[in-house]
Design brief:
endoplasmic reticulum, 164 residues, alpha+beta, wnt signaling pathway
């Protein structure tokens, strides 16, 4: 029995390609090809061959069915552009796109932020505003400036109260 166990342990050598992704060694990065002024290039190289999640938010107040339909169109367009991508709806206006090769995430991000109903896209913790966010942000900016003006007035009132 002991000899059999030793033979089986020798046969347990699993090839690199058959290992789960988290146990594989990362692909080597050629730093001579990377432009130091573009940090995205380094991220692209480091995510090559790794699974990566891209989060997208649909603008407005869509139902889950509307989100499903809109993001299905986005996924179809990306699939037609030869991106291996899966889509998971996780809320009434939120979706996750899963890429098998994370180096394409920034190209997918560029496509998504150009869509009419895309409010924002998140890649590796970095939030990128979409086309729909530009329309909404104008109203938000005006509201924020009004709030700042109100705060300044309140600060002036507090100062005069303290002086009394």
């Amino acid at each position: 029995m002991a000899r059999l166990l030793e033979e089986w342990e020798k046969d347990d050598d699993i090839e690199e390609g058959d290992l789960p992704e988290h146990k594989r060694s990362p692909p080597p990065i050629d730093f001579s090809k990377i432009d130091a002024s573009k940090p995205e290039d380094l991220l692209k190289m480091s995510k090559k061959g790794r699974t990566l999640m891209v989060f997208a938010t649909v603008s407005g107040n869509p139902t889950e069915k509307e989100t499903e339909e809109i993001t299905s169109l986005w996924q179809g367009s990306l699939f037609n552009a030869n991106f291996d991508i899966q889509r998971f709806v996780v809320g009434s206006n939120r979706v996750i796109f899963m890429l098998r090769d994370g180096s394409y995430a920034w190209e997918v991000k560029d496509f998504l932020i150009a869509q009419e109903r895309c409010e924002e896209v998140t890649v590796e913790g970095q939030v990128y505003p979409g086309k729909a966010a530009k329309k909404d942000s104008k109203g938000k900016e005006q509201n924020e400036t009004k709030k700042k003006g109100d705060k300044k007035a309140a600060n002036r009132a507090n100062k005069s109260r303290q002086e009394l």
